[in-house]
Amino acid sequence: MTTLTELAQTMQELLTTKADQLAAQCGFVRRKREVTGAHFAQAVVFTAMADPDAPNSRFQVVAAAVGLDASRQALDKRFDERGATFLRELLRSAVAEMVATPVAIPLLQRFTTVEVLDSSVVALPDELADLYRGGHSGRGTTTGPNASVKLTVGLDLNSGTLRGPELSAGRAGDLKAPLAAVAPPAGGLQLADLNYFDLGKFARWQEEGAYWLSRLKSGPKVHDERGRRIDLVAFLRAAGDADVDIDIRLGSRQRLACRLIARRVPAEVAALRRRRLLEKCADRGNRPSALSLALCDWTILVTNVPRALLSVAEAVALARLRWQIELIFKLWKSSGGIDGYRSRKPQSALCEVYGKLLAQVVRHWVIVVGAWSRRDRSLTKAAEIVALLALSLATAMRCVRRLREVLSHARQLMESAARMEKHGAAPNAHDMVFCLDTGP
Question: Which of 95, 114, 195, 436 has the highest CB neighbour number within 10 Å of its CB?
């Protein structure tokens, strides 16, 4: 568990000592000047943290607050290729840090980690296509902006710890991301969408003592324990409204031993799934298979977690928590502004994107230590509190004791003002998991 003092030390180390070291290594600062790596990094991070759409005049104010007394023109010149390289390397240093606070949900605590993994794409100026190649509208199967960066992120629901964002070309396949191949620690569980479904990877993870839980991809063949092919639609229809939990062999050649879990969904949910599937395929220029449409009547999961560790109801509830990573991306875009930039200059725009991503990582640290232990936390409200205190954090960077005091104030505010609103009698996702946790 990361304490307030440890977080203050981590933030100060990253945005002072490490920033100055990387600035020298990247050539961002070549000799002693009034613009240092630490001052520039702090100005970029805390301006973005307070307001991602802040005008240049606001950046100059924050720069002055952290000790960087320079003209607007001098600051603008720093948003160049060397500045982008510096902020990218500082972001890499930030994502290597592990900031964690456990949440008291016993079901999650059965596993060493419960990670949700996903990616999101941010468009960039076309001139950056050599660095981050995007899709080309009307050419082949990949469409989209000419230049874009894919952000792959893993979030441990047990502790709030981030893996990533890991940056790659926008058109790169999700499975090619290094983070996608890394197994959870022994006893850890990963939840990911179908873009990360890979039987070979799952087999390796099982050998290493790691767990996985995924929706079933429509391609792999399903066999019973004796190797006989299962007509999945007929089998599930025969089960009626009862939950299904059977041992299967998955794949034509892999024959991966795992569990298949299925639960019939209400008719209106199935209809909504079919409509979304049809719309998604229409965007791609094709049509879904009859099998895919038929399977919309069930939530179908496959996993290697043994029954003694996870019941059907718990597996279905855990699978819903995969959306927590999409909430992170939504927050980073809506209040973090990572998908926007003001400058028309490519390298300057890249500096903005890197700086905003760095601000999201640091802000996430503050939220984790301040609010992650509460299952009724509202990430949006917690982010608003961090934004309000951004300038206080900036001016406290010179002293760990003062920085700890500001972080303590942030936690106090989150305890009283960063709780999720109740919508009628409907429980939130964490409450559902908590209430189910009576043992498998």
Answer: 114
Residue 13 DSSP one-character state? I
Contact assessment for residue 261 and residue 239, using Cβ atoms and an 8 Å cutoff: no
Q: Which residues pair with 133 in a beta bridge?
A: 147
| Pairing status of strand 114-124 against strand 147-156 | antiparallel
For residue 405, what is the DSSP state?
Answer: H
CA–CA gap between residue 153 and residue 95 (Å, rounded): 10
pLDDT of residue 161: 97
Q: What is the pLDDT of residue 434?
A: 58
**Predicted pLDDT of residue 46:** 97
Instruction: Provide the residue ranges of all domains of the chain, joining segments of one domain with +.
Output: 4-97+337-417
For residue 308, give Cα distances in angstroms to 112, 315, 393.
16, 12, 47
Residue 438 exposed, middle or buried by CB count within 10 Å (0-12, 13-18, 19+): exposed
For residues 437 and 421, give the distance between their C-alpha atoms in angstroms, rounded to a whole number. 23
Amino acid symbol at 367: I
pLDDT 10s digits, 152-184: 999 999 999 999 999 999 999 999 999 999 999
**192 has which bridge partners?**
117
Q: Within the chain, which residues score under 70 in pLDDT? A: 32-33, 136-144, 423-440
Beta bridge partners of 348: none
Enumerate residues 6+ apart whose C-beta is below 8 A from 48: 54, 336, 337, 355, 356, 358, 359
Q: Whole-structure pTM over 0.90, yes or no?
A: yes
| SS3 (DSSP) at 212 | strand
**Rounded-to-integer distance, Cα 142 and Cα 212, Å:** 29
For residues 163 and 119, is the Cβ–Cβ distance under 8 A? Answer: no
The string of pLDDT tens digits covering residues 316-336 is 999 999 999 999 999 999 999
Closest CA to 410 of 438, 391, 430, 434: 391
The 10 Å Cβ neighbour count of residue 417 is 12
Single out the residue of 333, 431, 338 nearest to residue 104, CA to CA. Answer: 431
First to last CA, the chain: 28
